Amino acid sequence: MSDAHPAIPSDETRLAAEIERLKVDFPKTRELYREVCALLFFRFGVPPTANRLYNLVRRGTMSTPASVLGEFWTELREKSRVRIEHPDLPADLSEAAGELIGTLWTRASTSAQAELTALRDEVEAQRAEAEQKVVAARAELGRTETALEQRTAALLAAQVEIRELERQQAEEAATRKALEAQIKRLGEAVVARERELEKVRDTFSRDLEKLRETANRAEERLRATEKRALLEIDRERSAAAKAQKELAEAAKRADKREAEHRRTVDGLQAQQGDARHQTGVLQGKLAALGAAHESLQEQLKALRGTMRAPARRVPTAESSPPVRRPARKAAVGKTARAKART
After folding, report:
1. How confident is the model at residue 329 (pLDDT cuts 50, 70, 90)?
2. From start to end residue, where is composition biased (Basic and acidic residues) (predicted)?
3. How far is Cα 56 from Cα 53, in angstroms, rounded to an integer?
4. How many CB atoms lie within 10 A of CB 151?
5. What sign does the dihedral 68-69-74-76 (CA atoms) show?
6. What span, in angstroms and rounded, lies between the C-alpha atoms of 38 and 68?
7. Nearest-angstrom CA–CA distance, 112 and 120
8. Region label for 83, one of left (φ > 0), alpha (ψ between -120 and 50) or beta (otherwise)
9. Could you tell me the pTM of the whole model?
10. Distances from the Cα of 326 to the Cαs of 302, 330, 332, in angstroms?
11. What percent of the chain has pLDDT over 70?
């Protein structure tokens, strides 16, 4: 891509740039407005106005550009007058001659201004035409650059493709050389293998002959072994039949023993049930005896308590009944025996 061409600055752009420069050179507001008036009128051919001046400078109040503009026009009119000072001329003639020369100068200035305006219009037209040509040239340059970029890209792609083809060709050449070397090695290996195969075939033929002889001898031994095996099988069959018969008899004896064992087990289970029943009865009796024993222990404690209380008193013949103790002991014995029976 080519560098961007600088655009031709317009009058407004150049005016703004000049005003920024004047702001730096003339910091005072009135001087700045006066210089801007001269710039507009003499440089750009634009009659200055108060609003135009204020919009361009943006300093002070609206009265400042109006006052400066009035002073500018007054000064311009004073400078446009031509004073003819000659001692022989009367004052009114000098003034009329000055007015005539001023009028001529004004007309000449107006004509020059018109020519300047026409020249500016012509320059502006030429500038516009030049800008159009620049735009067309830029467009043509853009199209040319685009075509150049496309051709450059195609050229680069072709170069890359050529390099890739060259690389592939080099790889294929290296691969072909490697394959040729491998084929040569494989051919040599095949020849060596064929020689080894011939040796192996000879060895195999000799070994096969030996194996055939060995197989014949083994077959003869196998036939003899088969005969002996058949004899052994006959003997084993006889022994198996005998063992089968003995096994049947043993099974019958086992069945008888199993029946007897079952009858014995049934009898033992009946005895075990009777024993469990008797054990339950005895446990009931034992519980009754335990309860009776506890009752007797309580009665004994009560009797001991009643016997200790009278022993603390003074013994008299009327208060000690010795005959009741054997009777109570006999009653306790009867109660215990009755509970044991139940």
Report:
1. very low
2. 247-265
3. 5
4. 10
5. positive
6. 11
7. 12
8. beta
9. 0.29
10. 16, 6, 10
11. 75
